[in-house]
């Protein structure tokens, strides 16, 4: 499920109107229905952020194929489904932005994240292929890789925790990011300032 929020400037006094809609991003029919309603309500989508994701921390030998497929569907197939539905209008307008987001687990081999790493590694390559096919229509496709401290990851940030050590040694800044940093990066990528 996904929440879509839209803000609109309606007068000199800048009022904020929020349009929220939930739909299943892994179901083509539901995505089409949901995006059609968005387009009828507020117009074509100018900026798409593919941020839906799940992770199942199960070792490869213990993971059921159904669990593996579910992670692949949400983390890799859903961005394709939603992007395919949104991009034709962007092509018509010759403008648009797509931001594909993920946590950096796909970069490192680690225990119990094989499905997530497979999906997000695939999303990285899908992002490159989207760029090859859609950049000629002035559609900007960006990737935003998170190294963000979330509440459920706080235990990972202790000195001496293997994952904290991995982040500290392989992240140039040598620190975790926070939500504000992530939001600012997303705003930059969505803005004209990031145009190439």
Mind sketching the topology for me?
Elements lengths: L1 E2 L18 E2 L4 H15 L4 E4 L14 H29 L2 E8 L10 H21 L4 E8 L15 H9 L8 H12 L6
Parallel strand pairs: 3-4, 4-5
Antiparallel strand pairs: 1-2
Helix pairs in contact: 1-2, 2-3
Number of helices: 5
N-to-C order of helices and strands: EEHEHEHEHH
Rg calculated over all Cα atoms: 18 Å
Tally the beta strands.
Answer: 5
Poorly predicted tracts of residues:
1-11
Largest sheet: 3 strands, parallel
Shape: globular
What structural class should be given to the helix and strand makeup? alpha/beta
Query: Considering DSSP H and I runs of 4 or more, what fraction of the residues is helical?
Result: 40-55%
Separation, N- and C-terminal Cα atoms: 32 Å
Oligomeric state, counting identical vs distinct chains: single chain
